[in-house]
């Protein structure tokens, strides 16, 4: 099974949850074509200065507890994916795959 099941996600420590979120994103990206990987990279570069992205990223950096960091990372992931999709609508399918994978981890 590629992603954690619901029971595992509920019993994970905050650190394990953060690692699982990162792993599922990497798994989806590793299966992309070279072209889509380059599109993701370009879209990420384009959103780096976006105020919503910067605010969500600052919230992650300023989180004082593991639980707060998880919530901030969830929000950052959502903001990032929303902005990537807006930046390059051709990445909608990729963004949806990443969202689906992260949802499986966070249930």
Structure description:
This protein has 107 residues and is mostly helical. The chain has one domain (14-106). Helix content is 80%, strand content 0%. It has helices at 6-11, 14-30, 34-47, 51-62, 66-87, 92-106. The two termini are 16 Å apart.
Q: How many beta strands in the DSSP annotation? A: 0
The helix/strand order is: HHHHHH
The number of domains: 1
Radius of gyration: 14 Å
Beta-strand percentage? under 5%
Q: Any idea what the shape is?
A: globular
Which percent bin holds the helix content? Answer: over 70%
Mean pLDDT: 85
Terminal residue distance: 16 Å
Protein traits:
107 residues, mainly alpha, 0% strand, globular, disordered N terminus
Blueprint of the fold:
Layout: H1 6-11, H2 14-30, H3 34-47, H4 51-62, H5 66-87, H6 92-106
Helix pairs in contact: 2-5, 2-6, 3-5, 4-5, 5-6
In short:
By secondary structure, this protein is mainly α. 80% of the residues lie in helices and 0% in strands.
């Amino acid at each position: 099974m590629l992603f954690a099941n619901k029971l595992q996600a509920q019993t994970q420590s905050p650190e394990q949850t953060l690692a699982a979120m990162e792993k599922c994103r990497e798994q989806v990206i590793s299966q992309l074509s070279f072209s889509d990987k380059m599109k993701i990279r370009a879209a990420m570069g384009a959103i780096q200065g976006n105020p919503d992205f910067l605010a969500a990223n600052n919230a992650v950096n300023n989180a004082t507890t593991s639980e707060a960091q998880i919530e901030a990372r969830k929000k950052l992931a959502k903001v990032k994916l929303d902005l990537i999709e807006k930046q390059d609508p051709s990445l909608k399918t990729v963004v949806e795959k990443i969202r689906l994978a992260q949802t499986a981890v966070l249930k």
